[in-house]
């Protein structure tokens, strides 16, 4: 089969590799769409320490069931040829972390396209219980958004904004945009966002959010005006830079919540004493649980998530081109690579 392989840092090659064979309890998917995730850009440049040359990236996928492994019984909606997406995150299911209901942070977790061969290929293998059927989807290809949407569902649940609360989302890339949509569905009040790329800002405004200046000083001043000097109830950092993390802690109100989602920068100094004195809740959100993923699939099935940025379809062999464009700050929507059939 053809696969987009990281040949060396910052260089992909389309190679002919062996087709994966599903083992016991596994299923092989013929990939139709594979989204490029922002977290993969660090792997492409060699800065994330997780992805290495020789790996096939990709964990946001849509395809059709191709073949079941030994002992894997197809459910009625998941027979060979059925359109599916799949939860790409595997956990051990046995450790104390999994038992506590947080398999997303299982110390033994494995992710497609990081620890395991990913979906930037003609075929990918996943556990049979990771499958989600796409019957009822008017546009099955939109299920490629299930994985980032699950991240947004998880983050909003972690922050727990009350109905009518004010919210600020820093960064309106795919995760930020989906955060805005999930917040709207959860009944928050005013939703503001910052985003330096004009194209992304347009999509966020289409979701009903109001754009604010991303400059930290001007942002703080404007938030003060909008909230009578109190600050925002809940702030989500969907970027993960030092600037956005520090801005988030600056503009949140006393007693409010900051939810850190973005992973761009490794370490950031924060004003911990000030946060303690204002009793700010600092929470984090990583990936998603199986329930979060299932909820995201249903939101997409019912078309409650619009994602106005849209999908950009590209051939698998154009992967190098699109990774480079995204690294350069191209404000395109979700880029989706399509292997040959």
UniProtKB/TrEMBL annotation:
Q: State the UniProt keywords alphabetically.
A: Metal-binding, Oxidoreductase, Zinc
Cofactor(s) essential for the protein = Zn(2+)
Q: Which residue range or ranges hold the Alcohol dehydrogenase-like N-terminal domain?
A: 23-134
Instruction: Tell me the organism.
Output: Microlunatus kandeliicorticis
- Top-level taxon in the UniProt lineage: Bacteria
Question: Which family is it part of?
Answer: Belongs to the zinc-containing alcohol dehydrogenase family.
Q: Tell me a Gene Ontology molecular-function term this record carries.
A: oxidoreductase activity
Name-wise, this protein is 2-desacetyl-2-hydroxyethyl bacteriochlorophyllide A dehydrogenase
Every copy of the Alcohol dehydrogenase-like C-terminal domain together lies at 174-300
Recorded hits in InterPro entries, A to Z, give:
ADH-like_C (IPR013149), ADH-like_N (IPR013154), ADH_Zn_CS (IPR002328), GroES-like_sf (IPR011032), NAD(P)-bd_dom_sf (IPR036291), Zn_alcohol_dh (IPR050129)
The upper taxonomy is:
Bacteria, Bacillati, Actinomycetota, Actinomycetes, Propionibacteriales
